[in-house]
Amino acid sequence: MIEEKDLVIIGGGVAGYVAAIKAGQEGMKVACIEKRGTLGGTCLNVGCIPSKSLLNNSHLYHQILHDTKNRGIEVGDVKLNLANFMKAKDTAVSGLTKGVEFLLKKNGVEYIKGAGTFATENDITVALNDGGETTVRGKNILIATGSEATPFPGLEIDEKRVITSTGAISLENIPETMIVIGGGIIGLEMASVWSRLGTKVTVVEFLGQIGGPGMDTEIAKATQKLLKKQGMDFKLNTKVVSGDKSGQRVKLDVDAAKGGKPETLDADVVLVAIGRRPYTQGLGLENIGMELDERGRVIIDSEYRTKIPHIRCVGDVTFGPMLAHKAEEEAVAVVEYIKKGYGHVNYGCIPSVMYTYPEVAWVGQSEQDLKNQKIPYRVGTFPFSANSRAKTNLDTDGLVKMLADPETDRLLGVHIIGPNAGEMIAEGTLAMEYGASTEDIARTCHAHPTLAEAFKEAAMATSSKAIHF
Ligand code: FAD
Ligand code: NAD
């Protein structure tokens, strides 16, 4: 039995570890239970961080192969060493997960390695990774157990031939062919990695556009065009209905959603990227009568309280977009609610970034969101082909698109496809958070020559006229 804590956190992912650090900083006695053996959860171990390492380095490799001659750079024999390519990823992961462990220690958090289960509403039994069991009692408890890949019915995941993102970040060979089920963010990021390394990738997407929920249709179309140019194939409006991996190649039966005829596709490897689902297995929620919604999410109120008020919940396991930075914001807010009685997350202002090349990033409402809600808007765009820095970089694909209220000029949404879109969206997020108008942005001096000038010019195009286009 461990001494009673002010806060016991189940799950050491972004939601859990950030809450642990924040609570430690607030002078609370905290324990954080994590069963994986390392901290950082999906994001640091098998999600954001390893995927971005592979995306960055596969882009570099692809660029060296295909985009140097026109820059006056002649390269000799270029070879990929897949084992070392993966090692670079592992180095990034282990550096960061160890860093988080250090931060927990620094903030006085007790890190318990094991799987936590509710024994009562205040007592968590932990099956320790090293064997044995302990119990920790919390005045407050935070569920931060995250999510897992949604499996495809009838197609067993082996992480070698039928893989989730976890298999896709650690394949030992470069497959000749790959089918990706689902053209959302995971599907397109992983398709990018393997396509750049030489795999022929086909993305099968049920909807009429790629990018998953939230991506503006105009931007999604532009993205698809650029990814196609890089060698990816797409089958939109097409649903995978069943799969069979008993033969040498994995077979998939697909149905065209809009009147086409059914067909069978096959590939060496199939990536299942049809979404993620909340993870509550083994948590013992049934022991305390906790309710889940129809999608398996823990039900909470606006202060992250479950129906048992001292048990709260944040991150992927509850409502909202499954994003690390959303989990992080909630983690800080929930500790503030516990400690001070108030906290805040602006759910209208959570950016999304897809780390393909070019990157795609957005915040706020899309044009179709506004149309669907019959909200009037004004739109302004600026292409990177008219931006001087993009021109010097020979990197001119993409555009910045802004949506604003026609009466007040208040910014309603920003959508960017282009180089460094993921960094540039921070400016849009800050502008929205402060309730900026597009004229405010247009009148803000931006350094020259920078890609961010495209952001300013898109704002000019929205409030009046761009100068350079
Ligand atoms: P998780 O990170 O899933 O952490 C939950 C932790 O709880 C896990 O470590 C688990 O082992 C532990 N746990 C569960 N049950 C128990 C138990 N009973 N006892 C003890 N421990 C338990 N998001 C972004 O914002 N940007 C990105 O670029 C991005 N890239 C991604 C790429 C991939 C391939 C994937 C899969 C996801 C990506 N995400 C990205 C999403 C991001 O990883 C999640 O939104 C984020 O990890 C959610 O954090 P969390 O703490 O809620 O859950
Ligand atoms: P997603 O929901 O974004 O996309 C899944 C796609 O699969 C959808 O477009 C859906 O229409 C399609 N689909 C579902 N069933 C299908 C079928 N039978 N046949 C064909 N298509 C089908 O989910 P994801 O890409 O798996 O990502 C999961 C979560 O992880 C998301 O919430 C995402 O935000 C998060 N994530 C974020 C990042 C990032 O921020 N860069 C990176 C990776 C993952």
Automatic annotation (TrEMBL):
Its cofactor is FAD. The keyword Nucleotide-binding applies. The keyword Endoplasmic reticulum does not apply. GO terms for cellular component: mitochondrial matrix; oxoglutarate dehydrogenase complex; pyruvate dehydrogenase complex. Residues 350-459 form the Pyridine nucleotide-disulphide oxidoreductase dimerisation domain. NCBIfam families: lipoamide_DH. The active site is a redox-active disulfide bond. This is Dihydrolipoyl dehydrogenase. The lineage of its organism: Eukaryota, Fungi, Dikarya, Ascomycota, Pezizomycotina.
